[in-house]
Structure formats: structure tokens, C-alpha cells
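Inputs:
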Amino acid sequence: MIEFNRVSKRYADHDALRDVSLTIGTGEMVFLTGHSGAGKTTFLRLLMLLERASMGTLRVDGRDTARIKGRNIGRYRSEFGIVFQDHQLLYDRSVLENVALPLEIAGFRPRDIQRRTRAALDKVGLLGREKANPAVLSGGEQQRLGIARAVVARPRFLIADEPTGNLDPQLSAEIMGLFEAFNRVGVTVIVASHDLALISRLKHRIVTLKLGRLVGGSGL
Amino acid sequence: MNKRAVGLGTAPRATLVSWIHHHRQAASSSLLRALRLPVATGLTWLVVGIALALPASLLVILQNIETVTSDMRSPARFSILLEGNVSLTDAQDVSNRIQSRVDVRDVTLIPQDQALARFAADTGLVGLLDSIPENPLPHTLLVNPLDSVESEGLSQLAMALKAVKGVDQVVFDTLWQARLAGVLQAGRRLVMGIGLLMMMGAVLILANTIRLAIDARRDEIVVIKLIGANDAYARRPFLYTGLWSGFGGGLLGAIMVGVFFIYLSEPVNQLLQLYSSDQRFTGLGIMGVLNMMLLGGFLGLFSAWHAATSQLRELEPR
């Protein structure tokens, strides 16, 4: 469970989040929406401990994230799978090696890494492209590769920041379908997107931010 | 709300098998990465090699000089000439006092009559010496110090012997050995000093190499930290980069020293033969090569650790 309790994030020149209180239940799928600068990315960055809240408390499964420091940050982050708009793939490694990375970091055995990596690639339809360099994949394939890497270690939370920003409507729907599939097996999914047309078609909670404030969808 | 995920959560972290696997992977990928850039890698190895080869060459030369000169050395011995008015009984007394010192192995008293007879026999001046009414030679003591007494101890012993009542003159024939030992000692310190300076240079060069390597892979490091890697995981490949750079530099340095000694050995061995010495000019040997590689590896690891630790701490996802 993720609990934002009166969380604010203040930068030198503006407030990115203001007094946000929100609870996201375990196994829930939530869309985070709002215009550019609404605070969606700041919300996710606070969750990933890339930033710290200026005020308020953020708890994940009961743990106060303000107390997570040093080497425990890596362990905390490994509970999340992250999908980026710009994929953030490593282009000097193969498709297989990219997907295997979270498993290596998490300390899986080599034979488990092989098995899980192939399973994740199979789920996103990239089995057979293991040896390819990510650079030769299309935009949609690169995004699917990013999703495979995000879910391969079976994270408790899957976070996506504008995952369909660069994709056409058909590919976007395909990617959202993948998120729903992972959510169905119990992964808590949080997707930041400003594509209202797409997310309103899906039957999940929509949380709306405006100028750093929560303006809709705060309840469970 | 969906049901809670089954079997989710983090895997057991850092199991021994996966830890070893990542070390193997980091070691091999670092080596392959280095070999894919032969010019840059070769230059780093060369600089580290030169930094190690110079002090190593000087050290080996010094060791050769020590070996050769030890062949020429005779045990240190003092000749003590007693004052002319010292009787044989008093000379025996002085001998006993010197013998009781802890730094003296043995003392031999040569009475003045025996000294004169030996001198006459050695010089063939028997007739002439017979015509002298009084023996001009004093009683003499030959003092052998303990082998463990080194140059400074020998100087102190000479001063102590000179201060003994009845002693007129102390002759230390092997003073040159003490001086040579002093020169060699100074030489050793000079080599150590040069070695330390060169190693500091090697550490700075290696640390800079690692910093550049980290800079070149900045994006990759940010991504792996973002997906849960800690600093130890991110640092590991760079530690191996440092280790390989040091090993390579050490090996290249050892080859340079070897070539230098092959070039030098023939004229030096000829020179030694002219001095009838059995000694031969020797190079690093297998152990020397291994030591240079190990030293290079240690310097590489040390440099990489410091460079990577400080830089990775600052390299956080933004």
C-alpha cells in the first residue's frame, strides 16, 4: 500500500506538489493524469526516492520512506519496476542482457535469470529477439522491452511515466493492455499519462493533479 | 481491488552464486572492453609500466651491486696499536677488557717481540732490525667484531676502542666497506623515494582513467541505480578495469625491465669477469615479474576504488 499524507514538494522557485494525500491499495491500477507541470513526474520521483518530500509523510507498505537511506535505497527501488517514456535502455547490451539486468542486481542465480528473462520477453512478444541490439527495435518494441525489464524481477509496484508518449494509438493500447495483464496477477500499477482519451476507456481509478494539487480521484 | 500478487517481492539478494557470477561477468566484460580499445589501453599500460619499471630497474641494479660487493668484502677487523710504555701484562689486561665487550667476537694479542719477528721475516730485514737497540713496535691487538655489527656499530666500536686506556691507535682497514654500506643504504632510500613518487603518479593516472571510464558510462550507471543497483554493484566493473590496467602495466613494466637487463647484462658480466668475480648480473626473475604485476594490480585496484567510490556517490539518478 502506498500512502501520501499531506505531501508537499517545494523547489526553489515553485511548489511541484501541494498537500497531496492519497492512498493506493495493493494490487490496484491507478492512472495519474494532469497537464504538463501538474506534478505527475514529481509524484513518481518521490515514490522512487529520487526526491524527498519537503513536508508530509510518504509510506510504502507501512515504511516511512524518509527513513530509507544509503544502501537501502537500492533495495527499496528494486521493489519497483519502472517504465520510462524514453525507454532508458542500454544500447551496448543485447535485448536479453537489458532484461536480465534487474535480476542480476537482485542477486538471482544465472539459470533463473535465463528462465525468467525468456519468460518476460515472451510476455511482451519479443522472444526470438534476445540477441538483437535494442537500437534496431522499433519504438513500440523498445517500449515493450522496457516493460519486460521493469517486470522481469516480479516487482511489487510497476510505475510508468508517460509510457505511450511516443507511440501511435494502436501501440499505446497494446502497451496499456500489458500493464493491465501484469495488474491482473497482483502487481500494483501506477501510470502517469496525459492521454485522457486512452485512459478513460480503461476501467481504473484516475487521479488528477493540477498545479501540484490533487483535484480528483483521491479516494479508493 | 485485485488480489495480492503471489510470489512477488524481491529475490534473496546477493547470494554467493550470483555474487560470484557478477564478479566473473564484471571481470570478463571489463577485460573485453579494455581489449576493444587497444590504443587507449596500451597507452595506460605503458604509462603504468614505465612508472613501475624505473624504480624496479634501480632496485635490481642495487641488489646486483650488493651481491657483487658482498663477494669482495672481508670480515671487518680492527688493529689496535697500544702505547709504547704498556707492558705485556697490561696489554693482556687491555685485551681481556676488550674481549668482554658484547660486540666483540675475539681478540688476539700480538706481543711486540712476536710482531718484530714477523715483520723481520716478512721484510727480510733481520740483520738490520737486530742492530736496533730497542724494539720500536708496540704490542698489538687484533679485534674481530661480531658479524652482526653493521657500519654504524663498527664506527661506535672504533670510538670505544680508541677511548680504552693504553690504546694509542685504532686502525680499521675495512672502513671503505662501511662507507659502501652507507652509500648502498642511501641508494635504497633513493630508490624507495623515486618508487613512491612514480607509484603516486601511476595511481593518479589510473584514477583518471577510471574517472573517464565512469564518465563514458554515466547514463548506464544512472539506469542501473534507478532499477535498484547499489554503489557496490555499480563500482564492480570499474574495480576490474583498474585491476586489469594495473596488471597490464605491471606486465609491460616487467618486460621493459627484462629487455633493459638483457641489453645491459653482457658488458656488465664481462666487467665482472675482469674483476675475477663469480657473480653474474641477474634480472627480475619470475618472482620479480609476479611481484611487479601484483603491485600494479594493487595500485590499479586502489586507484579504482577511490575514484569510483567518490564519483559514484555523486552520480545519482535525477
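The longest helix of chain B spans residues 231-274. Flag for discussion at group meeting.
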